[in-house]
Every structure is written in structure tokens, then in C-alpha cells.
Amino acid sequence: MKVFITRIIPETGLELLRNAGIQYTEHREKRHLSPEELIAACKTHDALLSVGGNKINAAFLQACSHLKVVSLMAVGYDNVDVPAATALKIPIGNTPGVLSNATADTAFLLMLATARKAFYMHKVIGRGEWGFFEPTTNLGIELNGRTLGVLGLGKIGMALAKKCRGAFDMPLIYHNRHRNEEAEQLLGARYVSFEDLLKESDVLSLHAALTPETAGKFDAAAFAQMKPGSIFINTARGAMHNEQDLLAALESKTIWGAGLDVTNPEPMDQNNPLLNMPNVAVLPHIGSATVEARSGMARMAAENIIAGLKGEALPYGVNK
Ligand code: DGY
Q1: How many domains are contained in the chain?
Q2: Which residues approach ligand 1 with their CB closer than 6 A?
Q3: ipTM
Q4: In 3-state terms, what secondary structure has residue 153?
Q5: Angle at the Cα of 247 (from 246 to 249), degrees rounded to 5?
């Protein structure tokens, strides 16, 4: 049995595959595979371990219907046509949970960096512009007691909410498809409508999946309803916000700042004006980029491959 792996992955996953007697081919070049290249590679393999946003759409799945399993080294599966895979009886796996802390840490980092203009100050020093101490310049805002609003309160949102409660005693409001009883009991979270989430959050952090409902949800109309002193954080998917509308909201001081680990599009252009704004912090989609999270993700992705190739149910399966 042979698996095609679209990027270099941590050794934890490769070792598991080798121990299970599974051969693998890694795409080691630092470039995206075209859809045609991905299909051609999969034709000679029994399974796919996919890292990054390869489009696992109906056309791909039909061309590669021989695949016994498609295992994503990611929690998000918005790049996969799951109903098409299910119809073709191809199991899809992902890696939930193991990256929640790392991603929540990234949201927390962006929140604080935005509030204190940290990334911008770093650049100011690099430009040789560290002037003299002035009591009225370089002012950020404090997060103590501010309201954290979460769109999509699952594992990552919960991890962030606990950090924010512990560090800054931040009350929690949230909007979800379903009520989160645990959050309500444990953290006193308050469920609100999407409109109230916009109106009441001091820090609004996105942790929902990218779906037709959340795509483009943060546009000019949404930013217009947010508090003037609020901070927008996106560590979920860049396609949930309109980058031009975000820029306009920041320039007009409709909102106070933004912290992005995901951008729209990715990668962000190096001349994007957001990169020069004091109240903006941007990272290159590194939410899960810790040794711990990535090792765990590689292990889970390999476990899904091993189960799929044996014809067993995936330990972390996505198809319903
Ligand atoms: C995930 O796990 O979904 C990360 O965003 C990587 O795509």
C-alpha cells in the first residue's frame, strides 16, 4: 500500500506509516501541486495525505475514486467536497483538538499585539525611529475586563476564552449554530445573535468553519456595526473577511485594530497597506505551527491513513 503526501511532514507521522508497512512518496518541492499533478500522483497511490489547501473537489474525487482514504493534516476541511467523497465511499479524515491550544495562543498573541501595536513598534525600531519618551504617543489599549466575542465557540474558541478569562478576566459572549452548554456553565458564556456579537464585543475572534454561511460574513456592513474601540481577530479562514472592507474600517476608525493569522487572499502581498498600520498585526497562517501541534497532527493524519488502508473506520473521520 502506498500513500502520496503533498508536503514534508513531521517524523511522528512518517514513523507510524513505516511501522505499519506503508510506503510513501513525499512531494518535497516548495511549491503547490497543480490539480493535474495531484491527480497524476494519486493515480499511482492508494491513499492521499493532504497538507495545505489542495482542492479535494468532485472532479478530483471522481478522477481518483480508487483512493481508499484522504487524510488531511488540518482541522479545517473547507477544501473538501465531503458529500462527493461520501457518495464515492472515500473516507475523509482531519486532525481536530491537537492544534486547539496552539491556535488559541496565536489568537491571544494577535489580540495583545494589536492592542499594544507591538508588531508596528518592532518595525519602528528597525527603521531607526525610536525617538524619546513621549507620554502621549505609542498608546495602546488595555484588555482587562473587556468583552471577548467568539464566532464559532468550539475547541479553539474555548481554549482562547479560558486564556482570556485567566489573563484579563474577560467576560465571554458567543454566536454559534448550536448553544455551547459547557461554555455557559464553566465560563458563564452568554449566547447572543450575530448582530449583538458585532455590537457588544470589544475583541471579536473568529473560530468558525468556512462555510457558505460564514464566507464573506465580515464585510463593510458587519464592520459598521462593531464598536469603534474593538479589535477584529481572524485565525480561522481569510475568506470570512473582505480585506478591502477591513482596511476601510480601520482607516475610518470604524474599528480600532485587527490581528490576522489568515488573510484574503493568501499569501498576503508584501505591499498590502495593512502591513504598515500601527493597530494591525499579521502572521502568515502559523496558527498550528508549534512542535507539539504539528507532531500531533502528523500522528493523527497517519493514524487515519493506516485505518483507511485497512478498510476500518477512521479514528478522526469527517464523513457523516
Ligand atoms: C487547519 O488545520 O485547518 C489549519 O488552518 C491549516 O490549514
Answers
A1: 2
A2: 74-76, 99, 287-288
A3: 0.94
A4: coil
A5: 65
